[in-house]
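Lab meeting, action items carried over

1. Structure of the two-component assembly. Owner: GW. Status: complete.
Input record:
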Amino acid sequence: MLAFEIQARSGETAARCGCFQTAHGEVRTPVFMPVGTLGSVKALTPEELKDAGAQIILGNTYHLNLRPGVDVIRHFEGLHRFMHWDGPILTDSGGFQVFSLAKLQKITEEGAAFQSHIDGSRHMLTPESAVEIQMALDADIMMPLDWCIGYPAERADVLAAVERTTRWAERCRTVWQAKARPQAALFGIVQGGMFDDLRRRSAEALVALDLPGYALGGLSVGEPAEIMLAVAAKALPLLPEDRPRYIMGVGTPEDLVELVARGADMFDCVLPTRNARNGQLITAYGTLNISNARFREDVRPPDADCTCYTCRHFSRAYLRHLYMARELLAYRLNSIHNIHYYTHLMAGMRQAIRENSFDAFRRAFYRDRRASGD
Amino acid sequence: MLAFEIQARSGETAARCGCFQTAHGEVRTPVFMPVGTLGSVKALTPEELKDAGAQIILGNTYHLNLRPGVDVIRHFEGLHRFMHWDGPILTDSGGFQVFSLAKLQKITEEGAAFQSHIDGSRHMLTPESAVEIQMALDADIMMPLDWCIGYPAERADVLAAVERTTRWAERCRTVWQAKARPQAALFGIVQGGMFDDLRRRSAEALVALDLPGYALGGLSVGEPAEIMLAVAAKALPLLPEDRPRYIMGVGTPEDLVELVARGADMFDCVLPTRNARNGQLITAYGTLNISNARFREDVRPPDADCTCYTCRHFSRAYLRHLYMARELLAYRLNSIHNIHYYTHLMAGMRQAIRENSFDAFRRAFYRDRRASGD
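Predicted assembly:
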């Protein structure tokens, strides 16, 4: 289990600060987890990730199972040695990608049959195999196979997905209890779309399974941000106080601040790295589109207050030049900055909670974002 | 000037080992200079370059003049601060790129008029402006504008290019002597194609200008490797013993060993970085095409004897996976390895010359390359 310990709470909000232990080290929460889809957080080395403040990263079961294949990763006794990351790793179940990426998927009670989006090869993912693959990856935190419904969706479809997600979670739990090494955790994934009563139904069924942590899935699937926030706000209190609460695939800096305020502990999102590769540098004062001509001769770093490698050594003019010339270093330097921004936003929230000043932190966060950095 | 000092010579060959001083530090020769075309050695940070053993890097005047433009780099007082590289920089004159890359070039005695290969904008490069641009880049070593002839070429054309290159070198020298800071060096570039007597004519005229160093240009322009080597072998002894001798745009590991044996001191080439981005890892035992299926489960590093960051932490299987998935980290890890291979090949030669064992080094080099690494 994770030995999750809550060390401080914010007085005026539901925010909390804590830590949990894994076989690959401690994780301080609230935490943002950079996404390493294919066994690398795009463009970055493990050392750069640590330097940018990353504590735990994500691996994608669907992608790694197709490329390079778990049989390859077994030769390295898991993803850690394969990719040279000795910190904790959380892997998703692959369910979300089967539904969003794979071709010709056919979902039955047994599991999800699908064709690879790469080469059309046929695969089957069951609750059991999803856990077994994640065991082969040696994930510190595994996610159960779930059935994710998009937005908008009919109530009947969402209900069916909730019921099946619960049954699949039970099957995942059986494999995990029988086979996984003691320190590896399995979380539950609450579904229910944008229906509060179905979220409750899903949460209650999964909480009864007494899992080491709980996630909200099926958010940021196309719904407006305020709906996401409203659904999460109602669902978070349904999750056990003494277990980490993970919001999957979310989100913007504002999302993270608002969800921490509502008691969430863990996040993952491709936003900081994907936006970096699209030339968007996220700062406390808003986003710089580095391709903008006004940065052509700008000798300042992206954010004068930022202590990341990129801001310590490079100017907006240089970053614009690299980006315009499509130099590979551009993607890297931008990614380092954005990951650093996210991890330091989380560190700031942890400190504010410990100092019982989270509400002041949140006000300052919005005040800075309204101010222009230029 | 460069204060070039020869510290050791190989007994059986013309190889020599030395060092020269620049405003940005000492360079030990023989040396390989990684190419930073657009103000970055593709995919790598300055720290990685140093860690991989790079002492001095190249910048390309033609490219930097078009993007971002020297007016931008002037805001940083040169390329060093712009790109965060505090070591020595050598810049080429842009001549080679005007002839090989630009559109609609028109060469007159005045200089080279051309259109940008990026946006078709019109530019003029003269011997004077080539030096002035390199002064704005704050290059530690500048190259004069020369007229490079391809292969094969008519003798009359090569002769005309030699004569003009000499006249242009004189004009470059005038600007350099009048305006450049005292520590910035200007080299001469010997042309003459594959005609030994024209090489001699070019060398003699340039040596009379008493420049701090001399280069052989117009090699590796399409001629067979043995012709390149034969031409260089005859031209190198025409250059002053007490000045660094630089072979431009060359070459393979074998080229470097053979040219050092003939008395060359400096090299630059895109081969290690370009091949890295094409999945070719250069080792003492030959080249690994990392996409090869036989590396799929290969837990070994590219070269078990190599001490580079890539070989210390990553396997052939992981590098193959990254490369096949087109992950950005692939280009980086491969480039680190290849640059390290080149810089350590040069370090090995320097040590062998100091120990008066260069011939044994050369024999071992070929013996290893004949042996299979797998």
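2. GW to write a short summary for the group page. Key points so far: DSSP finds 15 helices and 17 strands in chain B. Residues 328-354 of chain B form the longest helix (27 residues).
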